[in-house]
Amino acid sequence: MTAPVRRPGKKDGKGKLKIIPLGGLEQIGMNITAFEYEDSIIVVDCGLAFPGDDMLGIDLVIPDVTYLKQNFDKVKGFVITHGHEDHIGALPYILQQLNVPVYGTKLTIALIEHKLKEHNLMKNTKRKVMKHGQSVSLGSFRVEFIKTNHSIQDAAALAIFSPVGTVIHTGDFKIDYTPVFGDSIDLQRFAELGKKGVLALLADSTNATRPGFTMSERTVGKTFDSIFSEHVNQRIIVATFASNVDRVQQIVNTAYKYGRKVVVEGRSMVTVMEIASEHGYIKVPEGTLIDIENLKNYPPEKTVLITTGSQGESMAALSRMAASIHKKVSIMPGDVVILSSTPIPGNEKAVSNVVNELSMKGAQVICQDTHVSGHACQEDLKLIYSLIHPKFAIPVHGEYRHRMAQKELAEFMGVPKDNAILVSSGDVVALDEDSCEVIDHVACGGILVDGLGVGDVGNIVLRDRQNLAQNGIIVVVLTLEKHSNQLLAGPDIVSRGFVYVRESEDLLEEAHGVVSDALQDCLDRHVSDWGKIKNIMKDSLSDFLWKRMKRNPVILPIIMEV
Amino acid sequence: MTAPVRRPGKKDGKGKLKIIPLGGLEQIGMNITAFEYEDSIIVVDCGLAFPGDDMLGIDLVIPDVTYLKQNFDKVKGFVITHGHEDHIGALPYILQQLNVPVYGTKLTIALIEHKLKEHNLMKNTKRKVMKHGQSVSLGSFRVEFIKTNHSIQDAAALAIFSPVGTVIHTGDFKIDYTPVFGDSIDLQRFAELGKKGVLALLADSTNATRPGFTMSERTVGKTFDSIFSEHVNQRIIVATFASNVDRVQQIVNTAYKYGRKVVVEGRSMVTVMEIASEHGYIKVPEGTLIDIENLKNYPPEKTVLITTGSQGESMAALSRMAASIHKKVSIMPGDVVILSSTPIPGNEKAVSNVVNELSMKGAQVICQDTHVSGHACQEDLKLIYSLIHPKFAIPVHGEYRHRMAQKELAEFMGVPKDNAILVSSGDVVALDEDSCEVIDHVACGGILVDGLGVGDVGNIVLRDRQNLAQNGIIVVVLTLEKHSNQLLAGPDIVSRGFVYVRESEDLLEEAHGVVSDALQDCLDRHVSDWGKIKNIMKDSLSDFLWKRMKRNPVILPIIMEV
Questions:
Q1: What is the pLDDT of residues B57-105, one digit of tens each?
Q2: Range of A21's domain?
Q3: What SS3 state is found at A49?
Q4: Among B53, B54, B333, B455, which residue's beta carbon has the most beta carbons within 10 A?
């Protein structure tokens, strides 16, 4: 008999390391992954996602952590790889449901603390600042923070030492041999761990479809230098990601070199600058930074504005300047605007609109060579695989096609086909020395945050919003006498988002006739079930509008009882 | 005295050629430009625009032609450059308001006729098929159709001969020395006209920001050949633009070469294929085309599907296949899907979703080198400028940044700075031998089409839809006695798209209390103005919800009178 003998107790994952991604695999965003061994759980990252186009009115999306709440007594803490929103943004919401300690490097913890303050959670949340190279024991696990490079400082990969073996989670990373601040990624440590034997690698898939190497952040500094040297007589405005402190550092350095004063504008830009300065992650030469109020005291060609809005976000500083609704800065003909970013998929049109508006005001917009990615491309990933040489590969951080590309790359780098697996959020991956397989699935998904409401908007409400958005609403209201069912008032028709009422009087009159006839027919036939009356009015009006207009508004019949 | 003497009668454009773009300059789409000389007007193109993200529920946008209607007796006809929707799509709507003859090349007229049939306008619309090289006299104008290349066949530039000089409108064009069908662009004619003297050039700005030359359509054929030769054991599915008949021809040719049968799928793809075949613009070898019903009779590796959906449009054939809701085609592991297109800005996310879905079903998705643009890049534009050498340049067909790029290019090619002008839709440009200036502005804009309604949805209705989409609606309804203002029923609260009613009972109860209190207060104070009562209820509820939820639903108070 050659069939494998299923060892008892293995099916439920006993004695195995379980890896349970609770988000981050269907999209870029909402990264959170639980590692469980017997009575210990640690959670890597706790990010939010920005709402999709169909999530009307939603501000942000946070992960469903039902599984963690059910196993609360096992959860030893959050270990955070870096301070981007898609890795820390859900913490203030989740910590209210799951109060456990948070571990991260200095800048990461500083950014988290800013959020905790906003949510009044500082007092009740334990934080521990970790240094690269340091490790912490959490139940059955020991977690070591390993230096990496990324588009935010202080990013870390995690070596997770478990009873069944070592797992490396890269976090978001790139390989930058010449970083602007601090050290290069700790390739030696990856090699050392690889040499000792790594059971599984969870690596960043964002750029796994892109050939070649990711350029050093420092190359952008060279571009800034040449742009500044070519435009000595013009004001320069640079829009970039607030969290990319190294980018801001390079702009500041170039401004200083060319004798320009620097103004920082945009709420998140100001916040990150403050936090980064306070903790020593950015160094601004004395006297270089000026307040926006003092901008008018310097000739334009002696100033640089560093601003948010590089993604065309409608309320960000650059968009407000472009639309002439910024209170303190007006775009002037001759201004040079550098968009130091590439549009995140979905933002292309918004960015394009801002570029048009800036151009119309006479600004010169420069995009070329002013951005590099923060994620490893294919050749970088190959280097990581060759250093770590994992037995199993579980690509993370990316849409299916990105993770698929990493799986193919892993196979190319010698990981056996069956050992490189693509999983979905909620999958329970069970690992031991010999096997890596999905054995179960737990609840997962996105909880919608709308204003102060968390989770009170779901699919039904969203579908209503989509219907309302498409064709508006028609309210049909009437008053009936309680017992006799005699019509006392109405039916009245009121609409919102349907048609111009003044220009569509005939149509609305006809619609009123249709509803009145349907109602009268019900009353004549002594239909006493009001639900039925409502449905009959609704259907007849709906039919009429579809035939007449090919439109499908939400119809809301209301019967008042007197 | 050196100031220019303003000659009498010149200010109102008398004796001048007026060029009046009524659309197409704020976006790519809705191209329509009037040329007016004394009592003659001709109109170049009559396109539609697709709705922006903020135009909720809108199907398409057509130009406001009030100016043409006011000058109806002058309008001699529409001259159409090519058969794309953004150049012909509004014709069936506008011809109902402005019944004048339509001139175009054979395929262009055939595509227009298909639309006229759908709108029952064939009998009442005069059409005239023009050949390249032919010209037609229309009032004071003579219009010559000049062969160009584009991503649809039978595209034409127009030489418009007017009493003040010759104007060339390129339409949408590229330079293809080796087109798949028919001749290359008639560069000789452009040179000949340029030699004689061209007053103004209106050229396509779509790719004016792109350096280099646009590749020949034929290069895509080579890519198809190599993909087909590498995947002889797999089914191949190619998604592309329905109107790109040359692309389809190349897919058919490659399929035939490799002994595959071809299935055409997607409504617009089938329509265009029929029209193109009927008029001889595509040649399919006998027996190559099979019906989709017969697909099952051939081994997958002996078939090719040509389909719509290359832009990720949710209802197109490819998207339905990817989502497993296509009735006749299921994606199989190993299928090769070629996306022969690049995403139009704004469609990136939708395309990416389709790629993910296809990958998850085991298909291999290929995008690289499978598309070329239909628009001239910078070096092509330079060639056109050097052949035509116009006195004035009025860049068209593009967003501001594209037209700005062409203006800069025109200056580089020797057009004096003040002779290259950027105009807005509605601007009246007056031209004579010596000058080109904006002298007036006429009504213009987009008319929204929603279902069968044309123009009955405008800004107020759209704003309502946006508000409804963000936070839903709350209807507050109550019944008062006519004279006594005594409350007979209500206030009742009904909501749609606001919150899960079942999970938010407490909140809705509180909201009810707030409205009831506000109402009672009005009644106690004998407020008799119902408008005032409604506003007080609305404001108090609105305040409550903002404080409590940070949300702003539409609130619709209704008072019934008994």
A1: 999 999 999 999 999 999 999 999 999 999 999 999 999 999 999 999 9
A2: 17-212+374-454
A3: strand
A4: B455
Mean pLDDT of chain A: 93
Q: Does residue A187 sit in the same domain as residue A286?
A: no
Q: Does B378 lie in the same domain as B359? A: no
Find, among A298, A346, A337, the residue nearest to A318 by Cα: A337
The closest alpha carbon to A99, from A80, A73, A81, belongs to: A73
DSSP string, A420-454: B----TTEEEEE-SS-EEEEEE----EEEEETTEE
Domain of residue B239, CATH code? 3.40.50.10710
A244 has binding-site annotation: yes
A339 with A366: CB under 8 angstroms? yes
Q: Are residues A560 and B475, on separate chains, in Cβ contact within 8 Å?
A: no
Question: Residue B21's closest CA among B364, B559, B428, B355?
Answer: B428
As a whole number of angstroms, the distance between CA B367 and CA B337 comes to 9
CATH classification of the domain holding A141: 3.60.15.10
Residues A204, A201: Cα–Cα separation, whole Å: 10
pTM of the model: 0.89
**A4 within some domain:** no
Let me know whether A520 and A401 are in one domain.
Answer: no
Residues A58 and A108 in one domain: yes
Continuous H helices in B266-316: 267-278
Query: Is A172 marked as binding a ligand?
Result: yes
Within this chain, do residues A393 and A508 fall inside the same structural domain, yes or no?
Answer: no
Domain total in chain B: 3
Residue to substitute from B496, B530, B544, interface A, most A β-carbons within 10 A? B496
Residue A344 pLDDT > 90, yes or no? Answer: no
Q: How far from A356 is each of A234, A349, B27, B346, B423, CA to CA, in Å? A: 19, 10, 10, 15, 14
Cα distance between residue A213 and residue A369, in whole Å: 15
Which of A116, A102, A127 is CA-nearest to residue A32?
Answer: A102
- Please tell me the distance in Å from B437's CA to the nearest CA on chain A: 18
What is A514-562 written as a DSSP string?
HHHHHHHHHHHTT---HHHHHHHHHHHHHHHHHHHHS---EEEEEEEE-
CB contact under 8 A, A562 and B496: no
* Contact assignment for B562 to A489 by CB distance below 8 Å: yes
A365 contact residues in B (CB cutoff 8 A)? 401
SS3 A263: strand
Q: Provide, as residue numbers in chain A, all residues whose Cβ is less than 8 Å from the Cβ of B558.
A: 475, 477, 492, 494, 558
In a shared domain, residues B391 and B412: yes
This complex has an ipTM of 0.85
What pLDDT, in 10s, does the model give residues A478-528?
999 888 888 888 899 999 999 887 778 888 999 999 999 999 999 999 888
CATH number at residue A544: 3.10.20.580
CB contact under 8 A, B500 and A359: no
B6 touches chain A (CB under 8 A): no
A489 interfaces chain B, CB cutoff of 8 Å: yes
How far is Cα A63 from Cα A95, in angstroms, rounded to an integer?
12
- Domain's final residue, options A331, A366, A401: A366
- Could you confirm whether A529 is annotated as catalytic? no
Q: Does B497 touch chain A (CB under 8 A)?
A: yes
B464 in contact with A, Cβ within 8 Å: yes
CB contact residues (below 8 A), chain A span 499-538, against chain B: 499-500, 503-504
Residues of B forming the active site: 204, 375
Same-domain status, B176 and B207: yes
Are A497 and B461 inside 8 Å of each other by CB?
yes
**Domain boundary, last residue among B442, B470, B489:** B442
User: For A452, which of B349, B469, B550 is closest by C-beta distance?
Assistant: B550
Q: Do B465 and A470 touch (CB under 8 A)?
A: yes
List alpha helices for B415-454, DSSP H.
none
What sign has the CA pseudo-torsion B136, B137, B138, B142? positive
